[in-house]
Design a protein that fits this description.
heterodimer, A: mainly alpha, B: mainly alpha, Ribonucleotide Reductase, subunit A
């Protein structure tokens, strides 16, 4: 992970690294050409450096909470083809992207906004593009999750975790399947390659040889953000097929984040302050890249809007308008707190989350406990059995 | 060729029980391979698509679909099996009775029942460890195969393999006297497959050779045991395994279609060496020391032991036809055909092929169609 090297960027007068300036450096954020330099390439290869671990301790249920999660996962499987009604007609212009009216006003009404001169038609197109972009990123992220989870099956040394992770592999395959099918059949195809910030994060997670880093990166950060983003989109869209698809995906995701929390709680108890600090830095860098990916640079480029100006204007947005960007962290922050990452050492991660303005979520409900409430698949089945 | 000999001192039979690493609860295998993302999400491979849809509907749950309250009296299980099949307990090892100078010449019936019971536990233990190897190999495949359809299907197989580990581990724990450590040859082969950086060799080693052997071995046990829980468990596991072998065949056929001759030869050699390694396992090697007999004593008698060899050969009844189907048998002057002839297993070449059975009809349904059992209900409500 790049955080082990000194971070480039601003130093304050007393020699302390200025993380706030680093986080909001538009040059760093808008340099998104590195990953997708050739969008015609169909295969992207990442070196896997981890050892496969056999365990000869087959005692199922030694870790009761993971065992419970495994049993839950077995009974909450659903089928992307038969549990969703793919005959639903979808008008792409009626599938609303998540949008906060005040945030829209900030971009539409301010004369300095790069979007100030957009016509109504262009705003509608922007909505459709943003939706396609969001779902494309979800889909690529789900493929990353599929590969990371397969890696966890190989590398985690506990049988209860291998069992549970196996169910997650098939969950992730299902998620790639349904997002790809939705884009293909309902939204004019997959128009956006994987975002640089997301892609490089996935690469880093896959390349790391320490198995707990795969958990932290994928289960806590990427999945935690996905859970929040899906929830936001689920609330804002009126399109019934997408609504149900997201509801079902979210009930799986809640288990996935719980898996990360339950596993890492045990692992982190054994770590030194220095080792925890590495995890804190990893979490911060991941959080930053997840935030940066929502700058939607590829959409601005496609719409003919100046990307860097747009990033700068977005970063200058008043704090009270950043509802969506903040809510993205509403799962990550409490989960990091539950893991003890916020306050380990001298509270380094608390300071960083304060720097990027998301610390207020620390006492929201953590996902180690709420996954059972989010099992929409089970709820639908109970209702059907009436 | 990278298959290395197992490190057992002083024998070339490839197996020895004695002290193992079973007490060490973890063992790591250095993996050097690439994870591959594919940006082509189009589902164009019909055979694999059908297999994926099939797999989704054929999931079952070890906790609910098997009746774990079934009482199992292990000794009675062995005696019933002997009665029902007409094969005395402890066969084929028991035929060593007739061999001159045999260390088991004085064994009575009770000892053979005890031996047969441990033999059953040892077989189930190897199934268990092999399933864990399959779990790790299949996760590897999901990471490294560059086709979206294969990633989708492979994901269902990961959860299948976890279920199999769960089932065998539970059966051994609750119903059998003991669990045996992994056989050295099996471990060596699994490590070799996991270490290889070429993803198609993971398919060949795992899906064709190891799963093929497993399918045959499960079939043999299913054919002889009278214990209802074990019977149902094996039937369900085999339904999954048939898909797994089909997955290997369907994928490799496409790859082998345009593989250069030299690369093809490497695959032939790999298949041969993997089979040879499994063939050179000594039957019951984990057991003899437990009964106070050195493996070397038994091995000295083996060349005269035709029934043991017949059993070993039968285990290749799935692998040989699948290698034929893949074109591996007759490529380059039939190099692999000659090797299989030397091993005495070529007669299986035209046995029913797993890929055809599964894509044309449904190999899975007939297994579940047994009137004594219910097919797990699909979650398609």
């Amino acid at each position: 992970m790049t955080t082990t090297e000194p971070m480039p960027g601003e130093q304050t007068v007393d020699g302390e690294f200025d993380f706030r300036a680093y986080a909001n450096d538009p040059d760093r954020i808008s340099d998104f050409s590195v990953f997708n330099d050739d969008v015609t390439t169909l295969i992207h290869t990442v070196e896997d450096n981890a050892d496969a671990i056999f365990t000869w301790g087959y005692g199922k249920g030694e870790r009761a909470s993971l065992d419970k999660l495994y049993e839950k996962a077995k009974t909450s499987q659903w089928n992307g083809q038969t549990d969703l009604d793919w005959s639903t007609d979808v008008d792409p212009y009626a599938v609303l992207a998540p949008a906060n009216p005040e945030e829209v006003a900030y971009f539409a009404e301010n004369p300095r906004s790069p979007l100030h001169k957009l016509t109504d038609d262009e705003w509608a197109d922007l909505g459709v593009e943003s939706m396609n972009w969001s779902l494309s990123q979800f889909m690529h992220g789900e493929q990353g999750a599929l590969l990371c989870t397969a890696k966890i099956v190989e590398t985690v040394p506990w049988i209860d975790a291998k069992y549970y992770a196996a169910t997650q592999v098939v969950d992730e395959a299902r998620h790639v399947e349904v997002f790809a099918q939705y884009l293909d059949q309902k939204l004019d195809g997959i128009k956006y390659p994987v975002n640089t910030h997301l892609g490089t994060l996935l690469d880093d997670i896959l390349q790391d040889s320490r198995w707990d880093m795969t958990y932290l990166g994928m289960q806590i950060m990427v999945e935690g953000l996905a859970l929040a983003a899906f929830g936001f989109m689920h609330q804002t869209t009126e399109e019934p097929l997408l609504k149900k698809l997201l509801r079902y995906v979210m009930s799986d995701e809640a288990r996935h984040v719980a898996f990360g929390v339950l596993t890492l709680q045990e692992v982190y108890q054994e770590l030194t302050v220095a080792e925890l600090r590495e995890r804190q830095e990893f979490a911060f860098e991941a959080a930053l890249r997840m935030r940066d990916r929502f700058m939607r640079q590829e959409v601005w480029e496609r719409m003919g809007v100046d990307v860097k100006e747009m990033v700068q204007f977005t970063l200058a947005m008043p704090d009270d308008l950043r509802l969506f960007q903040r809510l993205l962290f509403s799962k990550i922050v409490p989960n990091c707190k539950k893991l003890g990452l916020l306050d380990a050492g001298d509270g380094w991660l608390r300071d960083r989350f304060t720097d990027i303005g998301v610390i207020q979520f620390e006492d929201w409900v953590d996902t180690g406990e709420e996954y059972a409430d989010l099992d929409e698949v089970a709820k639908d089945r109970e209702m059907a059995e009436g | 060729m990278t298959i290395t000999e197992p490190q057992t001192a002083g024998d070339d039979s490839g197996n020895q029980a004695g002290p193992t690493e079973f007490d060490l609860l973890m063992e790591s295998v250095r993996a050097e391979f690439d994870t591959q993302f594919t940006w082509d999400y189009e589902r164009g491979r019909d055979g694999l698509n059908r297999l994926y849809e099939k797999a989704k509907r054929s999931q079952w749950n070890v906790s609910d679909d098997l009746d774990w309250s079934t009482p199992v009296d292990p000794e009675r299980m062995i005696r019933l099996q002997a009665e029902a099949t007409g094969i005395p307990a402890g066969m084929p090892a028991r035929s060593l009775l007739d061999v001159k100078g045999s260390p088991v010449a004085s064994w009575d019936e009770d000892q053979w029942v005890e031996f047969a019971l441990h033999s059953q536990a040892a077989s189930l233990s190897q199934f268990l460890h092999g399933e864990q190897g399959a779990l790790l190999c299949t996760a590897r495949l999901v990471e490294s195969v560059p086709w979206i359809e294969a990633k989708y299907y492979g994901a269902t197989q990961v959860v299948d393999e976890a279920r199999h580990v769960e089932a065998f581990a539970r059966y051994l724990d609750e119903k059998m006297p003991t669990t045996y450590p992994i056989n050295e040859n099996l471990k060596t082969l699994l490590d070799t497959v996991l270490r290889d950086e070429r993803w198609d060799l993971v398919y060949l080693g795992m899906q064709v050779v190891i799963e093929g052997l497993a399918l045959a071995a499960f079939g043999l046990m299913l054919g002889t045991t009278q214990e209802p829980l074990l019977k149902k468990m094996l039937r369900y596991v085999m339904a999954d395994e048939a898909r797994h072998v089909a997955f290997g065949i369907l994928s490799l056929q496409e790859i082998y279609d345009d593989l250069p001759a030299a690369d093809f030869r490497e695959r032939q050699e790999f298949a041969y060496e993997a089979c040879d390694m499994m063939r050179r396992r000594t039957l019951n090697a984990e057991l003899w020391p437990r009964f106070g007999i050195e493996n070397a004593e038994i091995e000295a008698l083996l060349p005269r032991q035709s029934s043991q060899q017949a059993l070993q050969r039968l285990l290749f009844s799935k692998i040989v036809p699948n290698c034929k189907k893949l074109g591996l048998l007759d490529h380059r002057d039939g190099w692999l055909r000659e090797r299989f002839q030397e091993m005495g297993v070529i007669q299986y070449e035209d046995w029913e092929n797993t890929a055809e059975a599964l894509t044309i009809g449904d190999a899975v349904e007939p297994i579940f169609a047994d009137p004594t059992t219910d097919r797990p209900s699909p979650n398609d409500d």
